[in-house]
Structure prediction request, 473 residues.
Amino acid sequence: MILAALTALAIVAQDDTALRAAPRDSSQQQAQLWQGDTLEVRGERLGFLQVWDHQRERGGWVRAPQVRSLEFDEAQAPELLAVLRFLRDAPGQEALGIAYAAAYLRAAPAADIDAEPFDALGSMAERLARRASGKQMKADEAKTAAHLDVTRRYGVAWTQFERDDGRIQLCYDGDAFRRVLTLPAAPAQRARAVLALTRHDCIDPATQPLARVQLDQWRADLLDRVDLAELDGPTKNRVRLRRAGVWSALAYAQARRADGSSAAAAAEARALEALAGVDRAQLPEEDQRAYTEAAVRVGASRWALEPAAPASGKLGISTVAGQPGETCVLLTGPKNDAQNPLLRRCTYGRVWNASARAEAGGKALALAVQPLDTWLELWVFTQQDGNWSVQVLPPAATDPGIGYVEFAGWVPGGKQMLAAREARVDGRWTRSYELVSLATLATERSAAEPAHLSSFYRWQSADWKQRTISLRQ
Prediction:
């Protein structure tokens, strides 16, 4: 690390600091420096410092007020820590703050170093990664890229991958937070570290299934070690919300195993328990989106709790193994058993047999199928002109992301059904209650609340109303 090799140093405190060829503002600019850049100081003249930039292997002059000269001895450690505390929660100053964190760790005696500087370093690195992953103006993109480059010189590492929407997700690798968990730390510091290390959005979608299950189990174990009794209300809520999301993912993973039904039910029960434990009165406005996301994740796997029930009515379904990894759904009727089904349809998703709901007249059947841990679809089997077909009703008309759709009741007449949908679309959460045509699965009417749709209010299923996540207050 640069700080370990140098003694007389200065840290650039301002962006767009010019490294000039001579101690004059009119002299040629040798390079553009950014906050957090470290320079070796070799002299002073006319309000300028003569410096050497080891990263760029170039010398020059910078205005003295634009940098902060540092001495790395024990006596300066408390002052460096005070500046670090100030910069920790200063948006836009992450690169400078990380430079001060490195300076403090260089100056402080090893026996005096606890979790605080690593907590601050990790928090700033995570905030910088979030800024880099969000929408920015062109000028801000260049500045953020420069700040990332500066922090890499201090050993801060990043991971990146392409998200489902085509954008690049940048994440901090979490090294500082892992150190927090090995050092004497306050409960709030440990909770922040665990929340940072268990983020949903920092899991690469290309992660292989087995590795993903192992990662989710590690995340669940880490979250379980957080003692909620020692935390304030908002932090307790954040831990519970993260637990709900992680356990719902484990419920889906367990359910895909041939012998995993009981483990899936136990995992989903943990997810529901965590979600139910959230105190909405202590949920800050900035955490409302996290609450919605946790609820949708739990809703996508909620059928893991329901045991498969014997078929009732004129229609039913059974499942058999198809190609490796496939499950085939067989639609059965009074004269058509599994050996001679009305229709056969295969999927690599998890088929929730307990969700099958047949229309009383035997004209349609709805079935929940979960292709991803965060995406629950509805298969609707219908008969037209004596032939059976199946159509898929997704949570939203987008590429699979995060959302669920639920069967909510049959409308008398056998031509319509009720459905509840909740999903994230273009970064916004949408929830609707709909009257759906069985012929086309097109939405004929919809409302934001069930009471605002007369058909929904009259014909909604009591079974759905008892179990759904969508009616949470």
Observations:
- Residues 311-467 form one domain.
- The chain has 13 helices and 20 strands.
- The CA atoms of residues 63 and 236 lie 47 Å apart.
- The first strand starts at residue 9 and ends at 12.
